[in-house]
Design brief:
By secondary structure, the chain is an alpha/beta fold. It has two domains: 59 residues; 101 residues, Vaccinia Virus protein VP39 (Rossmann fold, 3-Layer(aba) Sandwich), CATH 3.40.50. The longest helix has 12 residues. The C terminus is likely disordered.
Length: 182
């Protein structure tokens, strides 16, 4: 299962669900109206282009994991803003615990962050208790493509604006399967 936190319009969820028809892809955002169109498009019949493997949940990051606890193989947070961004950068225990709580024993959390420097990235990685760093690097054009981030393209990442990919694994010593970053 893949969970995209702060999914916004949910377009990335729809693209991933199409690309990975055997994966359940869930978009979570505190603002239900932003993802309403994507949710309606996913819910139509398969004959009309519906995606039964795409679901949307209106919930704040502070109230996770709930029914999704311990089930996600991959959790993505792409270009967060507002309280989600503040909660990750600070970090806020409720948000970090919620993200970590979504992950299965071998799950991965992928953060795609912009407008922070390497020193901030290193400090963030050191403060995310219970998550082991697997990869920390500047984002590439292929990351933008793989994450299906329309915002990243509009912001000119990586050409005009830098961004970071931070991949973390659940627990110490979690045995993550070898796979693509996202």
């Amino acid at each position: 299962m893949v969970v995209d936190i702060g999914t916004g319009t949910g377009q990335a969820v729809l693209r991933r669900a199409r690309r990975e028809p055997r994966s359940l892809v869930i978009g979570v955002d505190a603002e239900a109206t932003a993802m309403a169109d994507a949710s309606r498009r996913a819910a139509v019949s398969v004959k009309k282009g519906g995606l039964p493997n795409a679901l949307f949940v209106a919930e704040s990051a502070e109230r996770l994991p709930g029914a999704l606890a311990g089930r996600a193989d991959l959790v993505t947070v792409v270009l967060p803003w507002g309280s989600l961004l503040r909660g990750i950068l600070a970090p806020d225990t409720m948000i970090v615990d919620g993200l970590r709580g979504l992950l299965c024993r071998t799950g991965e959390l992928v953060l795609f962050l912009s407008e922070i420097d390497r020193k901030q990235v290193d400090g963030l990685v050191n403060r995310l208790a219970g998550l082991e760093p697997a990869e920390v690097r500047e984002a590439t054009e292929s990351d933008v493509t793989e994450l299906s981030s329309g915002w990243a393209r509009r912001l000119g990442i990586p050409g005009s604006r830098s961004a970071w990919v931070i991949r973390l694994q659940a627990g110490p010593g979690g045995e993550s399967a070898s796979r693509s970053l996202v």
